[in-house]
Amino acid sequence: ARIDVDLSDSKSISERLYGLFYEDINHAADGGLYAELVQNRSFEFSPADNASYHPLTAWSVDGDASVQDQGGLNGANPSFLRLGAGGSASNAGYNTGIAVEAGRTYDFSVWARADRSASLTVAVTDAGGNPVAAPAEVRAVNGDWQKYEVAVAAEETTADGRLTVTANGAADLDVVSLFPRDTFMGRENGLRSDLAGMIADLEPSFLRFPGGCIVNTGSYDRDSRERAYNWKDTVGPVEERLVNHNFWGYNQSYGLGYYEYFQFAEDLGAEAIPVVPVGVTGCGDSPEITDPDQLQTWVDDTLDLIEFANGPADSEWGSVRAEMGHPEPFGMEYIGLGNEEYKEQFYANYPAFHDAVREAHPEIRIIANSGTDDEGAVFDRSWEFAREQGADLVDEHYYNSPEWFLSNNDRYDDYDREGPHVFIGEYASQSNTWRSGLAEASYLTGVERNGDVIDLASYAPLLSNIDYIDWTPDMIWFDNDEAVGSVNYEVQKLFAANAGDEAAASTLTADGGTAAPDIRGGVGLGTWNTAATYDNVKVTGADGATLLEDDFTEGADQWTPTGPDGEPVGDWSVVDGAYTQSAIVENARSTAGSADWSNYTIELDAT
Ligand code: AHR
Fold first, then answer.
1. Within this chain, do residues 330 and 352 fall inside the same structural domain, yes or no?
2. Which structural domain, as residue segments, surrounds residue 501?
3. Shared domain check, 169 and 317
4. Which residues line ligand 1 (CB under 6 A)?
5. What dihedral angle (degrees, nearest 10) is formed by the CA atoms of 338, 340, 344, 349?
């Protein structure tokens, strides 16, 4: 093979090309990046978030203990736990439990009140009740709600820990919290250091947050439990933040909120790029804003966000930032208006946001957005609209097959250089496999070649907890004490760490050759490939045992094969329809055990 490079014909590449798409999906925040170890710390879980939830989700109680739903800490946190003398409550955290590691220090805190002086015993044990830390004591709980804190030093390591609080005397408790002290960069109310460290290793140049569909779904009625994402709900003291139904079907505490996102971006050396709702949703069928007064409130909230990020410390919202510990402005430069929008109401609502931001903050770069169809083709109307509006960038999203990425390397070669620039805000080839990783790597060569018009690009989604999966594939997989980067993660790291500043024209001359057909590996679930159908499917586990023999029409859905014991062995799907007689089931993952990252082999006849 031979590569000819023409140095006289080069284009500059955006300095911020490689960054992050972060969404609170797959429990990316609570039970993930947010280092809080207690699940349902405020007893606010509700069937409104998830039919299986109740105020004692993740808790087990003993003796005189009950949740009261009125008269609590504040309006955002009405429910609390009432313990009688000797009553206790244990929290099981996420996944297999609360993960603690010998030698690390954990900060326990609780808001409590007691009519008569009481004390609390704080124990961290394994699931069998064996202590993994010396019990700690909160002494003299007395009077109205106050915050009490005590440190817990772990002497043993466990991934299935329990935090148990026992009341010696009657007491009311709320916001029961256990945090590792060594969060990422030592931030208070901070992030899990292993996950944040892996993210930092990607050397991201921007952080787009907080989603994704969680941004623009839900009700614009402020009293609804399914409120559309409003950044104001997520700032200030954690005990005063609302909890909310997350579009992906769980409770989001907002403990990881806008301040923490800006702080994280700063700690990463990345540009913070918030995305706000514009009163309409491209995801599902949430109510839309048609009332101009209601729309204006959300426009004002958007302007207030810019003040929160960039305003002086004595401005209304800048002072909230300053009180939280960051008097200096964060220096936000971009704002995303809407996520993946294409509905009629978007075209009606967007101008109010765009015009208000442009007028008040001409220095901010405005990102409009677009949908794409299943083939990744751009909805022309969104681009025309963005041009008319004078948006600086358009955010486009696509999740496609490896073949699509391989055959669309030239997608941006003829893009209009005069109009809005491109933000590839979400993209992924549809599996965590070598094949998809290679397809993405190949595609990124085309992205770099067009780095003069593509300013920003981010793989999506970033994070998934293996026991709370809403979407696959994902870049980083984790449970309560481990984290694994997919092959796609390695691709991102490789490109970001070796980002160029100029793309020179080049030509490759090579003999044909054949693609290696047996590409397997990775973790997480594969997704669908609607391009082919299959018959006579046989699935063989890593140990050679037959796990399933059945007919299967691909494209209908994923399904869960069962092992010899009848238990589910994993969620999986065929990834590559191009193989004629056999293929690999990529990413089968045991759901029976906690973290069996193995793959399975599939034999099938293509029809
Ligand atoms: O990344 C997962 C989802 O894909 C996002 O929430 C949404 O923007 C897109 O449809």
1. yes
2. 12-30+184-509
3. no
4. 23, 25, 211-213, 283, 339-340, 397, 426, 460-461, 471
5. 10
Q: Are residues 327 and 416 in the same domain?
A: yes
∠ CA 128-134-140, rounded to 5°: 115
197 or 506, higher pLDDT:
197
Same domain, 224 and 308: yes
Residue identifier of the C-alpha nearest atom 4 of ligand 1: 212
Q: Do 161 and 196 share a domain, yes or no? A: no
- How far is ligand 1, taken at its centre, from the CA of residue 504, in Å? 33
Mean pLDDT of 113-130: 97
Active-site residue identified among 44, 260, 288, 340: 340
Instruction: Tell me the percentage of the chain whose pLDDT exceeds 90.
Output: 73
pLDDT tens string 74-102: 999 999 999 999 999 999 999 999 999 99
Q: Whose CA is closest to atom 7 on ligand 1?
A: 212
Q: 99 by DSSP, 3-state: which? A: strand
168 shares its domain with 95: yes
For residue 130, what pLDDT band results from cuts at 50, 70 and 90?
very high
Q: Which residues of 563-592 are buried (b: 16+ CB within 10 A; e: fewer)?
A: beeeeebbbbbbbbbbbeeebbbbbbbbbe
Query: Ligand 1, residues 217, 339, 346: which to mutate, most atoms within 8 A of Cβ?
Result: 339
Distance 509 CA to ligand 1 centre (A): 38
Cα angle: 156, vertex 159, 161; to 5 degrees: 75
Q: Respond yes or no: is residue 307 known to be catalytic.
A: no
Asked if the model's pLDDT at residue 201 lies above 50, the reply is yes
Structure confidence by residue, pLDDT tens digits, 213-236: 999 999 998 888 888 999 999 999
**ipTM of this complex:** 0.99
The conformation of residue 419, written as its DSSP 8-state character, comes to S
User: What pTM was estimated for this model as a whole?
Assistant: 0.85
Position 527 in a domain: no
